[in-house]
């Protein structure tokens, strides 16, 4: 099966040169995704709202790739302020509580100071 690229329509993808997700056989690799509403190119101030939007963006990319959040096997969270990670937990539990993928949280600066979280996932589709 040929590699397939998924785009969210974000201007970042074109400007930087990456895809929202790449499908390679049964694997789906979703790029680091922020809380931007990519259609409006707006981002909420609240970390909790950004976390929710990140996961909606990821879910959309997975669906386009023929997968779902239930297929996620690995997730990486990046936050500029590690002390705020606990604030995200209720939203993360809402989306991943029963799925329980392998996970890692990193504290690092993000490309835009408005970004308060970035999430990257890897999923394995049940049926390619």
How do the helices and strands line up, and which of them pair or pack?
Blueprint: E1 4-6, H1 11-17, E2 21-24, E3 27-34, H2 47-64, E4 72-79, H3 85-96, E5 102-107, E6 118-124
Parallel strand pairs: 4-5
Antiparallel strand pairs: 1-2, 2-3, 3-6, 4-6
Q: What do you see in this structure?
A:
With 128 residues, this protein is α+β, with helices and mostly antiparallel strands. Helices cover 29% and strands 28% of the residues. It contains 3 helices and 6 strands. It has helices at 11-17, 47-64, 85-96, and strands spanning 4-6, 21-24, 27-34, 72-79, 102-107, 118-124. It has a 6-stranded mixed sheet with strand order 1-2-3-6-4-5, covered by helices on one side. Helix 2 (47-64) packs parallel to helix 3 (85-96).
Biggest sheet record: 6 strands, mixed
Which range does the strand content fall in? 25-35%
Give me the strand/helix succession: EHEEHEHEE
As a percent range, the share of helical residues equals: 25-40%
Shape: globular
Number of helices: 3
pLDDT < 50 stretches:
none
Category from helices, strands and their pairing: alpha+beta
Task: Give the tally of β-strands.
Answer: 6
Question: What's the mean pLDDT score?
Answer: 94
For the biggest β-sheet, the strand order reads: 1-2-3-6-4-5
| Rg computed from alpha carbons, rounded to a whole number of angstroms | 14 Å
**End-to-end separation:** 9 Å
């Amino acid at each position: 099966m040929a590699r397939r690229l998924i785009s969210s329509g974000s201007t970042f993808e074109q400007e930087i040169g990456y895809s929202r997700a790449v499908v390679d056989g049964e694997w789906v690799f979703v790029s680091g995704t922020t809380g931007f509403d990519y259609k409006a190119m707006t981002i909420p101030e609240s970390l909790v709202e950004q976390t929710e939007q990140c996961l909606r963006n990821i879910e959309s990319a997975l669906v386009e790739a023929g997968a779902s959040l239930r297929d996620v096997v690995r997730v990486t969270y990046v936050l500029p302020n590690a002390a705020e990670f606990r604030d995200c937990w209720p939203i993360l539990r809402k989306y991943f509580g029963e799925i329980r993928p392998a996970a890692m949280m990193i504290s690092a600066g993000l490309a835009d100071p408005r970004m308060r979280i970035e999430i990257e996932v890897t999923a394995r589709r049940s049926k390619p």
